[in-house]
Design goal:
By secondary structure, the chain is of the alpha/beta class. It is built from eleven helices and nine strands. The protein has a six-stranded mixed beta sheet with strand order 1-2-3-4-6-9, sandwiched between helices. Strands 5-7-8 form a three-stranded mixed beta sheet. A hairpin with a 4-residue loop joins strand 1 and strand 2. The longest helix has 22 residues. It binds zinc ion (ZN).
Amino acid sequence: MPDYRWLLYETIDDGRIALITLNRPRQRNAQSRGLLVELGQAFDAAEADDAVRVVILRGNGTSFSAGHDMGSKESVEEDGPGPNEHPTVSINGGTRGGIETRWLQEWHYYFNNTQRWRDLRKITIASEQGPVYSAGLMLMWACDLIVADTTATFADVVGTRLGMCGVEYLAHPWEFGVRKAKELLLTGDSIDADEAYRLGMVSKVFPEGHLVDDTVEFARRIAALPSVTSLMIKEAVNQTQDNQGFHNALNAAFTIHELNHAHWAMVSDGKAWVQTEETGAVGWKDAPPIRAAQKGTP
Ligand code: ZN
């Protein structure tokens, strides 16, 4: 079992349910490189363990995940150079340069890992609370089922804050519907847990304070199925979605995402991969609060 620094891994119910808990509560579980690499190891461990039937992915603290880590001290140090540089910085395209580096590194650590978790050979349940923004959505969407409590809100703000066409794993049209996906990406507005339930993205909305226990109770019902049955149900639905074009559509959108990064790198003379204040973005400190998308409000 790997020695995890950024998450907690445990099993309950005689090993039938694995609990993976993102554990950077002070950073609202922002996804640093180290966290994502460990998350891959934790999902691999749950998959390899034949006792495990259901995996719960959850976050410690007030938010499941507020997105990619855009600048915590640990994250900056991981990107190097320096003694705390993460070993993945110099593999998987990291030494190549230009868009090749960006493309390959994002493919490995943002895109393909998310696809891999979506196809994990176990049933996965994402358990959501608080603001879940941008890359937080990717982690949640990789899971088979999503449950939330009444504090959960969901938004992808990379369009309005960073000049980007959504996160790397563009499942938005599949999760929100085509028009709602455009609306939420173009405005950066959020939806709450009830609206997510109405859209079919979230299966349950539990009262505040009940999320941890109710998620486990829900997982126990699913863990009671024969493992072959639950996996075949997952596979039948995922293969249906893939035949509807899910896999190819996400690959195409990821390529557009990299083109978007290349644009901002060009206009910033190589200084930034996203829109920044120098190229017209509203700074993070000046940005208005994220609004709730509401019928009747422009
Ligand atoms: Zn990106």
